[in-house]
Amino acid sequence: MAGKNMWLIASGTDVTMVEGFEVPFARTAQYFDIRYRGAEYLYTGDDPETRRGTEAVLAAFGQKILTAE
Questions:
Q1: CA 36 to chain CA centroid, nearest Å
Q2: Are 68 and 3 in contact (CB under 8 A)?
Q3: For residues 51 and 49, what is the distance between their CA atoms, to the nearest angstrom?
């Protein structure tokens, strides 16, 4: 796995990603010499106003993944 890229996509009903949630992922990547490229969090709760735009955020994150070297 060394030298590979890794991204995190997380979802939940909290408005934002819980502080510290991505730390174990980043540290695991570091341990295995994997390039941790970042995370994106998508709100999946019941508030439609808060959910607005999540598809665009995910699409933009997907583009970052597709164009990474």
A1: 10
A2: no
A3: 5
φ, ψ of residue 22 in degrees (nearest 5): -85, -10
Looking at the predicted structure, is the pLDDT value of residue 69 above 90?
no
Helix (H, G, I), strand (E, B) or coil at 29: helix
- Residue 6 identity: M
Tokens standing for residue 30:
């570091």
Specify the length of the chain in residues: 69
What does the alpha-carbon distance between residue 5 and residue 57 come to, in Å, rounded to a whole number?
Answer: 20
**pTM (two decimals):** 0.81
Q: 60-64: which pairs have CB atoms within 8 A and are 24 or more residues apart?
A: 61/7, 61/9, 64/7, 64/37, 64/38
pLDDT recorded at residue 53 = 87
- Three-state DSSP at 40 gives strand
